[in-house]
Design a protein that fits this description.
Layout: H1 3-18, H2 22-28, E1 33-42, E2 48-59, E3 65-66, E4 69-72, H3 77-94, E5 100-106, H4 114-128, E6 137-138, H5 147-161, H6 185-200, E7 209-213, H7 217-229, E8 232-238, E9 241-244, H8 251-261, E10 271-273, H9 275-279, E11 285-288, E12 307-309, H10 318-327, E13 330-332, H11 334-337, H12 340-354, H13 360-385, H14 389-407
Parallel strand pairs: 3-6, 4-5, 7-8, 7-11, 11-12, 12-13
Antiparallel strand pairs: 1-2, 2-5, 8-9, 9-10
Helix pairs in contact: 1-3, 1-14, 3-14, 4-5, 6-7, 6-12, 6-13, 12-13, 13-14
The structure holds nicotinamide-adenine-dinucleotide (NAD).
Length: 411
Amino acid sequence: MNIFEMAHIPLNKAIEVMQLDAGAAAIIATPERTLEVSIPVKMDDGSTKVFTGYRSQHSTVLGPAKGGVRYHQNVSMDEVKTLAFWMTCKCAVAGLPYGGGKGGIIVDPAQLSKRELEALTRGYIDKIAPLIGEKKDIPAPDMNTNAQVMGWMMDEYSKIAGQFEPGFITGKAIGVGGSLGRTAATGRGVVVAALEALKLQGIEPYEATAAVQGFGNVGSWTAKLFCDAGVKVIALGDVNGAIFKADGFDCYDVDAYAKKTGSIVGYPGSKPITNAQLLAMEVTVLAPCAIELQLTKENAADVSASIIVEGANGPTTPEADEILEEKGVLVIPDILANGGGVTVSYFEWVQNLYRYFWTEKEVIDKQTEMMIKAFQEVHAKAKEYGVPLRVAAYIVALGSIAEAMKIRGMV
Ligand code: NAD
């Protein structure tokens, strides 16, 4: 089964449980539009290399497509289509006026010079320009793309459009229209969702412990904001390994250490553990915030946490979901838990359209309010239909999308 088919398993459960109109279900099953492009780049050694890029617009039913651009050697059409589908559902769950999109280029950016990376980025925008725009499809960063890449994309698109176009892309640096609060936004949303789940279980934050897999943007902010909330973070992991500290980490200090050394491994006073031990750690909350397919049928039975909050996209396979449900683990699904990033991207877009900027406090307050509302809506649907939060999140998303399809005369 490929990742696109796997992603449809909870969707199909939701379609069945809510008895969604067959036409709406058929429309949601496939992307509206997918583009494959070839991007020639003059390399530093004088040769020309042609790269392959993609952009998939899964849905524009609720608004313009929205989603990041990933640079990775394993990018594929299936992966981009799946990520675009998740964006459609994530935006709908968060209550944003967006559809879903995603893009990617097959490239290992570590192999390119800065000039080659800029040329590739500009070439990609030249090729997908007819499809994108602030009211059509709004890209953002994803794996291996950052505020600098967004800056080049914004510049290239503005040249093509013949006018300043900050609203066509989010995740920009503050100096060219970025939003305060965007860097921490995904981790903040993960923590807000986890705290809501703790509340449901009658656990105070100071009574809870957490393990966080991944210490990049999402994982490091999740860990730091858990510390701020009073949750004791006892295990952390990254691609190089994992570490344990029974009396809890000062995650800001671990972050400073990781920035200096390139990894959390070796943090003074910590005990090295394996990634498998981290995922099986006896904690209240396990937060997978690294990559997809981490909890599988091989290791789901070992999970000891009572709550899993998915900072990463797709960290849990459908087989693992079944095992976790049987064990009574509350899984807060990715399309709810990590929607904080796109929520603040939406705020960035709104600020760009108005050319009026908010304070960080305004951003955080509005984000927190929207995340709590989304969590409560999904939880209420889970109770109404007697289904896990993942299926409930798809029911919420499909409900809004199908209603818009009906009003628009599509079904
Ligand atoms: P990142 O590249 O900043 O960090 C990834 C982290 O995962 C790094 O610490 C890396 O060492 C670790 N990692 C990689 N492979 C690993 C492995 N095999 N085992 C353990 N750790 C591993 O990426 P990010 O932006 O933090 O994104 C992480 C996940 O969250 C991805 O699934 C991404 O799609 C998702 N996500 C990110 C955002 C965002 O705003 N950045 C928003 C929504 C979802």
